[in-house]
Amino acid sequence: MDARTLILSTPAILFGLSFHEFMHAYVAYKLGDPTAKLAGRLTLNPLKHLDLIGTFALFFFRIGWAKPVPINPYNFTDIKKGVILTSLAGPFANFLSAMVFGILYRVINPSSLFLDLLLRSFIIYNLILAFFNLLPIPPLDGSKIFMYILPYKYREHYMEVESYGFYILIGLIFLGSLTGIPILWKVILPFINFFYQIFTGTGI
């Protein structure tokens, strides 16, 4: 990654990760679970949310994550609804952010190359965080959503995979890097391309 890309990527990544985790904590709190708030995660301070490996992966592989926000589902009146809404909050926040930055991009129509690339960076990294985190691989948000929409008889078997999910995720990222076949990118890229085109009016 060259110096210009690093400079442009850093604010977008820090914002995207922080807002993502803040919204998890906020929605959980509003639904009756103060666990994240008590853990100091109801904040936009990126230092409270950054995961070393996940942030590294986002900078160098353009897919990554932050530290999961702790929740206690038993504090929710409706556990299934609480977990699903809390899990969706982060990706939805990133998607909404990408849309807002896209509107800003179209309104400003930046003539400055720096501002053009900066706004595009905010759009693309928020889209990456939105769709990557919806993958049903633990510990990503999509795994929690998927688990609670599974029929109950299959849920226990899926939970058994959860302890290996992180290693599966890391393995897929590095395997894609080594082989030149980015499996995870192939899944999420069509969605990123589609909405990036809608939000900016241009391709990536």
Short account of what is shown:
The chain has 204 residues and is an all-alpha fold. The chain has eight helices and no strands.
Low-confidence stretches: none
Given the C-alpha coordinates, what overall shape results?
globular
Average pLDDT rating: 90
* Helix/strand/pairing category: mainly alpha
* Ends distance: 17 Å
Q: Total domains, how many? A: 1
H-E string: HHHHHHHH
Number of beta-strand segments: 0
Can you offer a commentary on this structure?
The chain is mostly helical. The protein has one domain. The longest helix has 30 residues. The protein is globular, with a radius of gyration of 17 Å. The mean pLDDT is 90.
Write the layout of secondary structure elements.
Blueprint: H1 3-30, H2 35-38, H3 52-60, H4 79-108, H5 113-132, H6 141-149, H7 152-179, H8 183-200
Helix pairs in contact: 1-4, 1-5, 4-5, 4-6, 4-8, 5-8, 6-7
